[in-house]
Amino acid sequence: MFRLEAVKKSYLQKGRTVHALNGVDLEIPAGQLVAIQGPTGGGKSTMLQMLGALDRPTSGTVSVGGKAISTLGDGALADIRAHDIGFVFQHYNLIPTLSAQENVEMGLAPLKLPAEERAMRAAAALASVGLVERATHLPGELSGGQQQRVAIARALAKNPKALLADEPTGNLDEATRDEIMELFVQLWREGLTIVMVTHDSAVAARAQRRLRIKDGKITEQV
Ligand SMILES: Nc1ncnc2c1ncn2[C@@H]1O[C@H](COP(=O)(O)OP(=O)(O)OP(=O)(O)O)[C@@H](O)[C@H]1O
């Protein structure tokens, strides 16, 4: 699903070059549930940007679903993000004035589906995260855990090949965190590839595989 070879990503910060990723080799086959941990500034977000075809490496190769992203134009990268990758964020990133159903449908907008199919797929995605009865609710009328479920439904509605999650439980209490993690484990058992960045060791402990990124270098945690 993901292959990184000798990947470097550098940024210029006040005239100084920062190596956010500094020679990363990594393979994540389809069907894995991977947690990425590491200190602040270590390169975790940069890594998710590479996996999510949000940015290109400075050098080295990143392949997403067999496509080398350095060789693709912006339109092709947008296509990969629209079709193949679901994104989940710490702060849910829902639109407050839209219902749960409408928020999930928004995630399908780039696919340009007929309205009826969009509505059906959004309803099915909400059902798959246990929120059938909340479809007409606004985000402000839902708990944090329910809002994160809506965000997960939005990511799932397009039937992505992989889900990328940046601190998906960072805003939740422990009980809700465990529920959301249980949902990720269930989705993984159904065959979805999931890569999540987390500061929470209890969350990482549930993953199939744990990676650590520090100073732009990756190590496997046993
Ligand atoms: N767009 C950017 N421009 C300049 N420097 C950047 C940019 N994005 C990241 N960096 C730098 O790259 C390094 C890695 O950042 P990154 O956000 O990937 O770390 P992180 O592990 O996700 O940190 P955190 O846990 O705080 O989110 C840091 O030194 C950061 O300041």
Automatic annotation (TrEMBL):
Residues 2-222 form the ABC transporter domain. Keywords: ATP-binding, Nucleotide-binding, Transport. GO terms for molecular function: ATP binding. PROSITE patterns: ABC_TRANSPORTER_1, ABC_TRANSPORTER_2. This is ABC transporter ATP-binding protein. The lineage of its organism: Bacteria, Bacillati, Actinomycetota, Actinomycetes, Micrococcales.
